[in-house]
Amino acid sequence: MSNTGGKPKPKVLFFDVFGTVVDWRSTVTHYLETKYFEKLNSASSSIACTTRHKCAQVDWGTFAQEWRTRYYKFTSELASLGTSNESSIFKTVDEHHLDSLRELLRQYEIDILWIDDEILEISRIWHYLDGWPDSSRGLKALKERGFTICTLSNGNTSLLLDMAKHANLPWTYVFSADRFGAYKPNSEVYICACKEVGLEPGRCAMVAAHLGDLQAAKECGLQTIYIERPGEEAWDVEKIREVRLKGWVDLWIEAGEDINGGGILEVVRRYEVGKVP
C-alpha cells in the first residue's frame, strides 16, 4: 500500500530500532531463560527452595514483555514533558532498564536469584539484540542505493552503537534520544533529527513498526514508512483500519510481503520498482 501524492523521494531514512530493526522479544526472552537455567544448574550457587518455586512459575516471555511495557510507559511519560537542558533530570534508557529489572524481580519475588553485578549484566541485554532476518541486508542495500540511513531511537547512544556492531547494522549516523534531551514521540526529536542532517522534514522519512511513532513524525512533516512486525503494533484493529483508510502512511509493508525477504528488503524493492514517492 502506497500513497505517493507526488512527494519527492526521501534522501534520509530515520529508523526506529526496537521492534522495527531488531527482534527484542525473542532475544530478551531467550537470554532470560538462559541466565535462569545457568543459575539454577550452577554448582557454585545456592538457591533457596522458595526462590526455586517462584522461578518455576515465571513465564520469561511474559516477564520480557512486562519489562518492555515499562520502557514504553517510561519514554511516553517523559516525552510528554518535553525537552530539558537539565542533565540531572534526563534519565537514560540504560538507567531505566536496570531500575525496571530490579523492580520486576522484586514484584516476582525472585530478587535474590542474581547478585547486583549479574543483574547489571542482564539489564544490558538490550545492547545486544538480534536483528530481524531482513534488517542487515536491507539496510546495506538502502545505503548502497544512496540513502542516508540513521537511527532515531529512544535508546541511548552507547546502546545503539553496541547493537549496531552486534547485529551488523551499517548506519550512516546514530541519533538517539539522549542527543536531543527528549523521547519520542515528542516533536523535538523528529525536528532536531532533520536539522542534524540539514534537510527539510519532507525530504526525510520515518521508518517504524509503530503507528504512534509514525503519526508523530507525520505531524512534523516527515514521510512515513510502516513495517509490520509480529507483536509490535500497540493500536487496535479498528484504529489501524482507520489509518489505512485515511492513507497518511506513505508506504505500508505488510508482514506477508516477503517476495524478496520482506521487511526492509521490501522497502528496497518498492523503491527500485517505483512504487513509492
Show the helix and strand layout.
Blueprint lengths: L11 E4 L8 H17 L8 H8 L3 H20 L13 H15 L8 H8 L11 H10 L3 E6 L3 H11 L5 E4 H4 L6 H10 L7 E5 L2 H9 L3 E5 L9 H10 L4 E3 L9 H11 L4
Parallel strand pairs: 1-2, 1-4, 2-3, 4-5, 5-6
Polypeptide structure, described:
This protein has 277 residues and is α/β, with parallel strands linked by helices. The chain has a six-stranded parallel sheet with strand order 3-2-1-4-5-6, sandwiched between helices. Helices cover 48% and strands 10% of the residues.
Brief characterization of the structure:
With 277 residues, the chain is an alpha/beta fold. The protein has helices spanning 24-40, 49-56, 60-79, 93-107, 116-123, 135-144, 157-167, 177-180, 187-196, 211-219, 237-246, 263-273; strands at residues 12-15, 148-153, 173-176, 204-208, 223-227, 251-253.
Features:
single chain; alpha/beta; 6-stranded parallel beta sheet; elongated; 277 residues; 48% helix
